[in-house]
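Schema walk-through. Below, the input block comes first and the output block second. Nothing else is stored per chain. Lengths vary across the set, and this one has 368 residues.
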Amino acid sequence: MPGAATTAVVDSRRGTQRAESPATIIAVGTANPANIVPQDGFADYYFGLTKSEHLTELKDKMKRICQRSGIEKRYIHLDEEIIRAHPEIINKDKPSLETRVDIVATEVPKLAESAARKAITEWGRPATDITHLIFSTYSGCRAPSADLQLASLLGLRPSVSRTILSLHGCSGGGRALQLAKELAENNRGARVLVALSELTLICFSTPDENKIVGHGLFGDGAGAIIVGAGPLADGEYPLFEMVAASQTTIPGTEHALGMKATSNGIDFHLSIQVPTLIKDNIKQSLLESFRSIENTDPNWNDLFWAVHPGGRAILDNIEEKLQLKPWKLAASRQVLREFGNMSGATIAFVLDELRRSREKEEHEQQQP
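--- output ---
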């Protein structure tokens, strides 16, 4: 058993290790591939790229999905040049996992680097001041993994504490931010770089009735978020304060989403039940989260909302269930419209849109 003196030393050490105030988001950066595909032309792009123009009924279904998606364009790394170099990607009779992994092993960290450099520039401090790196992606399955490659690309210190989150899908961004908050608040002076990068190439497949919805929604992108807790240094400004964070898993829903590695890449499963599952459980999950900060009767319209835009139906269901004013999910709808669903990286785009909207409103209010 430790003596009183030892306990006092430990308590003192804990006190000096912890930050003085809750974690804040200090900077945000985003990036996308150069290839832009308009949503109203995606069916032609997709069925042409996969040489599947003869599947007319499935193509018509894709057109209907795109029309109802609330998306205007997406950024997609995969193009005809890559298909010409690697035709096995669209030949389900030939294994292509190794080809896909080779491509994303290089391109996922590079896209994350672009987003991270924007965030670091906004932050205004050298990359070597980053103490922790959290990298979330479903687009890779190789070691050394994307976190180590990104650390090298950015010139982070060899002592940077690295964590990789794999196959978290759309929840990857939220989980990474929760972990960043915990690291920042329990390590005084820590500055945590959250990197989120996804390329749909790893899941790309030829037209399939069971996968066509996903192909009509998902795009490619990367986000970077720098998180730190007080005291903030000169030149650091909090964009958002992270008061509390929690995660809830709905029991019995393991069937709704899934990914598994196959010889033809990662096989992605998305149930049509997902929007309904979210609608049926969102309110109770939020109430339980708010109880942790002793708020048992929150007014949903008093809050600002940074919601992952998993799809138009999901946003519609959340808005209806919580009786939100139409503008409360405007940032999420704008990101969905301009980029589609970029899985875990999307939340960085939503936060960036919220920040820009707020800055625009403040500027307009200052005008005579």
